[in-house]
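URGENT: need a sanity check before tomorrow's submission.

F., can you look over the Cytochrome c-type biogenesis protein record below? I want to be sure the sequence and structure line up before it goes out.
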Amino acid sequence: MKLLFLPLMLFMLLAMAPQQSACAAQGHAVASSKGTDRLSLAMDIAKELRCPMATNQNLFESETAIASELKAQIYLMLEQGQSREQILDFMTQRYGEQIRYQPKLALGTAMLWGAPVLLFLGLILLALRPNFTRLTRTE
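Structure tokens as predicted:
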């Protein structure tokens, strides 16, 4: 009986080995996929933020020490389950609105974008005004 038990157990272990390795590989693929997604999201966020030290470079392109720390901070926050908006808000609170390449629309930024348009329209009206007064005098 003991002689039959040992070969039977060995056969069962060998038969189940491919299934276990397939399950382990599938679990690793899922974990790897999550890690890859997290890394690509971290890179996207790093492309949206300016480097505080390097001029005209985003965090993704910059090779300064603070950029490396901030990239690691972004990845760590993603691992902790924080969303893109939470990370961007954290960085904005820590470094100010100038860290964003696309700042949120506020009164100050609206005035920056609206002032040139209003100035241009005012100049057009000023240029057309003499023509309008000449037309009304001739009548």
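My own read: Residues 2-48 form the longest helix (47 residues). Confidence is low (pLDDT under 50) at residues 21-31. If you see anything odd, call me.
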